[in-house]
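User: Can you predict the 3D structure of ACOT9 thioesterase? Sequence below.
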Amino acid sequence: AYRLCTMRKLPSLLARTLTSGTSGSSMLPDMSEVRSRLRDIVGASTNWRDHVQAMQERKALHTLLAKRQEDLPPRRMKDSYLEVILPLGSQPEIREKYLNVHNSVRFGRILEDLDSLGVLICYTHTKQEMQPRSPLSIVTALVDKINLCKKIIYPDCDIKFTGNVSWVGRTSMEVKMHMLQLHDGDYSPVLDATFVMVARDPENKRPAFVNPLVPETPEEEEIFKQGELNKLKRIDFSTASLLKMAPTAEERNIVHDIFLNTLDTRTVSFRSRKLPPNSVWMEDAKLKGLQICHPQERNIFNRIFGGFLMRKAFELGWATACSYGGSRPFIVSVDDIMFQRPVEVGSLLLLSAQVCYTERNYIQVRVHSEVYDADTREHQTTNIFHFTFVSENEVPRVVPKTYG
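Assistant: Sure. Here are the predicted structure tokens for ACOT9 thioesterase:
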């Protein structure tokens, strides 16, 4: 359930590269500049009508791709280190976009900002000095983990994001980001996040090589090793999926115990089930939503922005936890956001949120995202999201009714 956020200290060399302390934060780029830089790096069109031509122009960048990773110069962690300010306190005019009804910051907006920053960090890592435009299409593969240290993010205090590439494979990069908020003249930790990005060719069709990463200090060695362990864990998790492997003996016993606890002893029938006290059937703990994917929500590659998908999924997950617990839920952790396929502009995006586990006042919500093709009438899964919320009060136990 609740995993306390243990903020790792930045490696000492990264700490020395900080370009600002608590003063001078106005000199840092803000989120609008982050998105502007991304458009410049890729050569993206700001006009939807010109997007086809912009994508055609990117095809010519194929010749700039490296044939081998060894042909690319290695980079250090501090080479990709960035700081970005979100001036909610010093620029009140942007506050409205981030404000929720409880007078705190909308976490869905923070997810959008983290996604944009993670991509820019990766472009900073792979930047070639003689190339004004990058031949790489860098996209979010998954959100490995986001842990929060605070329940409430205040809407009238400046926020600072920091981050850098922490591990590199051949075509993928792990990015660690931190978010801090200004209180009484000091920035205090709010959350830390781990994203995995993948590099593809200019048309976003095939994998592309990225610059290797060279750790320089013992602290960086540890961070790099952790990135490698994270990769191995993801591989193990995918191979142990129920869609590929039978449940373990322990899992089978858990499922059978749940079944026995919900069996109606008067009839002793597989179909006759009884809800235990202070419980809710899992099938009655769902909410669904639909989004039409307009051009406004496109990313620099003219697909639907991953941050937008995360925001919409989070808001539906929050609403599900709110209606289930009967009180305001607070986000504690985000885990296992898998981006399985891109979402095209014009798609019908179907979101389905499901309470899948509860314990005391904690609520685990899974959100399944799929696109519907009106021409073929086919559904395809695009994303799966996992959110952990804590409610103000103890919540009923959620109980599965079917094996699935």
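The two ends are 22 Å apart (CA to CA). The chain has two domains: 31-240, 276-399.
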